[in-house]
Every structure is written in C-alpha cells, then in structure tokens.
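P.,

For your records, the input lines for the assembly:
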Amino acid sequence: MSTISNHMLEIKNLQASVQGKPILKGINLTINAGEVHAIMGPNGSGKSSLASVLAGKEDYEITGGSVLFEGRDLLELSPEDRAREGVFMAFQYPVEIPGVSNINFLKTALNEIRNYKGLPEIAAKDFMQMTKEMQTLVEFDAKLARRNLNEGFSGGEKKRNEIFQLAMLDPKLAILDETDSGLDIDALRIVAKGVNRLRSKNNAFVMITHYQRLLDYIIPDFVHVLADGRIIRSGEKELALELEERGYDWLLKETAPELIAKTK
Amino acid sequence: MSIESKTEKLGIDLIFPDDSAYRKIAGERFMQMGFPDIHQEDWRFTNLKPYLSGFDHFNPLPVVSDTFTDEDKALFNTSSPEAYFIVLHNTRLDRTHSELPDGVVIEPYQYSEAEIEGTSEEVRERSLFQANVALHSGGIIIRIKENISLDKPIHVIHHFSVESPHFAFPRHRIIVERNAIASVIESVHFSKSMGNVFEICHTSISIAENATFQHFSLQNRMTAHKVINQIYATQAEGSTYSNFTFSLSEADLIRNNLDVYSHGPQTHTDMYGLNFTVGDQLVDNHTAMHHLQPDCTSNELYRGVLRDTSKGVFNGKVFVHRLAQRTNAFQKNNNMLLSDKAIVFAKPQLEIFADDVRCSHGCTIGQFDDQAMFYLQSRGIGYDLAKNLLVEAFAFDITSRISIIPLKNYLNRLIHDRMLVSAELDN
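Structure tokens returned:
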C-alpha cells in the first residue's frame, strides 16, 4: 500500500522531550509548497524546540507522533540527510567556526547535497557565478562571504549569512528560527526582502517569531499560536495583528485557561 | 682516537671523542646522571626506556656526501616554499648544495666555551644537554648579520642516511645580529634505508637588539626517527622570537624542549605548536618562557589532535621574575581527542614573582564542539566530513598565524592530507 501525499510537510501529534521533560505535547501542522507559515507564541512555548526537532538536533527525544516530508519519514533521517532532502533551518544563534571559510563551507555543503542527489560536483566557475548572484539577491557583503564562518560577525551579520546560505542551498522547506531577533529595522528589511525574493510556488517557509514586526515585511499565509507545546489556534495573517494588539492572554483564556497561571 | 667505556646505568657502550677536556667532563656528568627517567618531574609521562632498545652503542654517524636521489630532490622542492637552502647530511654541512644570500654566514659547528657557560643553569643541568656536549658531532652555525633583512626564509634540510640504528648528536647555533630580520625553516628527511635514528639535538639561538627571528620546525616525514630536540633561545632588548613547531610525522617519539629567556626589556615571544598523532606515537612538548626583564610580552598556543592509542604531553612553564614588571604573558593549550584510548597530560605552570603583570593560561581537553557539528550537518555535510572540517579548522587556527603564505599553504595541504589518511584509518 502506498499513500501519495500532496503535502510538503505533515506533522501529526508530534511529542518530544528533553531530559525526560516534555516540551512538545502533540503538534499537528500541515504545510504545502508555496505557503508561508508563521509560528508565534509566548516564551518557552516550544517554538524553537519544534524547529530543532525538525532539523534533527540530538538533544531531543521523540516520544510520539510522526513527521512526513514529501511522504518520507523525516524523523528517521540524520540531520545531514534532512538537509539534503531539502529542509533548512536558519539558526537563532548561528555558530562561529574559526578556521572554516564561509565559501569553502558553502561549496562543501552544496556538493554534499548534489552528491546525495546523484549530481556531479559544481564547477568552480558556476559556483562563483552563483555566489555572486545570491550575494546580490540577498544583499550580503562579499567581504563577509570570504571570511571565516561567522567568526567575528555581528548578530545582524550572522542572521544575514543564514539567509545567504538559504539562498545558496535553495531548500524546499526553510524554517527561520527567530531570524528577526537582534536585528535593527534596516537589517530586518534586508532579511525580509531576501526571503521575499526567494519565495516561490515550489518552496515553503516557516517563520518562528516572537513579534509581529517581521510579519509586516513577510506576509504569511497562515499564523499558528504555540503554547505549552501545542498549537492552540491557527488563522490567517489577521491573527498576528490581533495578537500584537491584545497579547497572548485572551487567547490562552479562550483555549487553554489552565496555562494562564503557568505562564505568569 | 677515542676512548671507550661502558656504564652499567646506561647499558650502552659510550664512545666519546677525547679531543678535549670539556667533552670528558660532560661525558662523565652524563654517565653519572644517565638518561632521564620517569622519576624526574619533567619526564613523568615520557619513558625513554622502550625507545632506546636497539640503540646499544654510540657509534658516530657514517660520513655521507651527496647521497640525494632524484626522489629526495623532488621532495625538498615540493616540501618547502621558495627559500635559501642549507643542507646537512648526517648532521654534516654540505656547502655545495647550500645556497645563501649575502649577509648570512654559515660554518660547521665549533665548540665555544662561552656558549656552554652562557647557557642557563636549568638547561645545563639536564643530562641530555651534557650528553650532547660530550658527543656532539656535525651541526652548523648560522649567523645573520646586522641590519640584514632577508627576502626569503632559509630552509635547513637535515638529511639522514643510515643502515643500522644510530644516535645522532647534532649541535647548532643561530646568531641573529642587531636589527636583522630572518626566518629559518627546519625539516628532516630520510633516504630510504634500514636504519633508525635517535636524535638528541641542541640548538642555541641568540637574538640581538631589535632583531626579528621566525623559526619553524617541521617535524614531518620522519618515520624512522626518534627525536629529543632542545631549543635554547635568548632575546636582547626589543627583539622578537617566534617559534612554530609542527609535529605531523609518524615518528614514534618526539620530545621538544623550548626554553626562551628575555634578557632585555620589551621583547616579544611567540610559541605555537601543533601535533597530530596516530598509532602509539608520543609527542611531548615542554616549553618554558623566562621573563627576566620588564615590559615583555609572550604568547603561546599549542594544539594537539590525537587518535588511536597515541599520547600527548604538554608542559608550559611561564616564569615571571622579580624584575619583570608589566609582563604580559598568555598561554593556551587545546587538545582534541578523537579516540577513547588516546591520552593527554597537560600541565600549565605559572610562577610569578613580580606584582604588576598580566598572565593568563587555559587548557582544554575534549572532542569537537557539538554545536558546530550540528551546524555543519544541518547544511547537508555528513558526519565524517564535518569532523574533518572541524579538526582542520582547529589546526588552521595555528597555521593562520604564519605570515609566509607559501609555507602556510604547504602546511595546510599537509594537514589536509594527513587528515584524509587518518580518517581512513579511523574507519
């Protein structure tokens, strides 16, 4: 029996814990190609944990549920195979790796992905051409691209490097984990512009954010509110505006009153 | 003309030239002291005994002249950046193959009482210092003249060719005169032979006022080698000494002693080291920075990558003497253990007798950073390749401090190749 799924990502009743402590308590979420989803929620609601679980971070133990990516069981794949299949997470705190050049790192990553797909290594000339194009597209400084991976980068430069990597690796599903945090308004605009240019009918974005501000620049198709490891409300972009105006409490009162005491 | 005697303690036939009193005295001192053993603090983790087996007499090295094969020559050319050359065969200077610029003078090593007497007591009291004085043969003196600034490094090629196990006791001096700027790269090469060399080498370096001397020791391509390498350096006012020691060979024993003394104020010293060990190799680095004068700075970074059952020892002493006010001394030692059975003994040792100083030291022993590993994996880079990248990055952090670009590139390639070979061994 085979089930052909038209969905890009199908998360069903996903549960995960860290050191025995439940963090995700039954997430259901379906994402299709061409869509942009925003995931919002109060601090500690499990937003970043969801991103980490999808990217394959080892610290999390999956205790229940399933995740299908283009019909394949995502959870059984290694982090590198998830990336090769087309899942990309932009880190909230990108790691500095002195001694590894940004360009060499990207070329290695690109060739690993190509190798997985049975494609030959990218020609040096094509790679340079692509680097140039993508630098322009996401407005990433060529000087930074030549430096060591994130070494000595400011917070904003690191986030912009994540978007540059996203542009170079061209994933199907991009998860942006609080990419807006720590960005000033100009950097935020540049990051948003980059994402908007990369949007297509073939890829999907999940934006994890604490603030509505990012959503002024990248208009989501759907907004989900996460609280205590579950999605308590899903809606369209107006939901984000309502949250901005009224905070999270009213929603918690309506959907999960038992959490009010907990979050205070 | 030599006298022969045997000491029970050493268990080795001792033949030393009786051409002068100083050798006789040193030889007697050495016989009393014997080889260092693990009961001495500086040799606690490095037991020489097993490495000495098979070396049962101190026969002088055979005299060889031009025994280079074409293969050897190709090796020299590819294994160094553009440089001037000094070639030694079995520790003896070969002038015909050496090529030097004006302002650099070389001659075979000559014993100098002043040099021996001028050596610090700590170093003179070492039994292997006495052994080298008693038994030294060959070696060179390199003099870089006042105000000379070299456009290329000098590559000293220590070429060995033996057919049976031999001790070697080379002794060298490097004199860098006032305001001179020079770099020396040393490497060891073997002609294909059955022999095995146990080298006990002493190099004394004096760096005069405002001179700058960079010194690279490339310990690679030394399969049939055991080496105990003593470098004794003194610095006059305003001088800079940078020592880089790369232990990237398959030699089963490498012990480096690096002792640097600031004899004048406002000196700067760099000590960088990198070792990659596999199998049951042992690499032991003992460094000592003696800050004797005020307003001096020193910067030390040693890194080790250990696989299999290999062993690393790091002992970094920093002495700040009473006069050495406003010293700024930094020391760091990082070790990456890539196997459960590899061992590192690390010991930073700071002794400070001045009150207005800045000294810091740090030491880490661990694996690569999990966060960095996950970051690379999340971009599609497989675990093994990511591991190689991280180990290379760890090593490149040392080579990035080399200002001679071709040398840096050469070492990076060497590290990369060594990584690939080692990674295959892991699997």
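Two observations worth noting. The two ends of chain B are 55 Å apart (CA to CA). Chain B touches chain A through 25 residues (CB under 8 Å).

Regards
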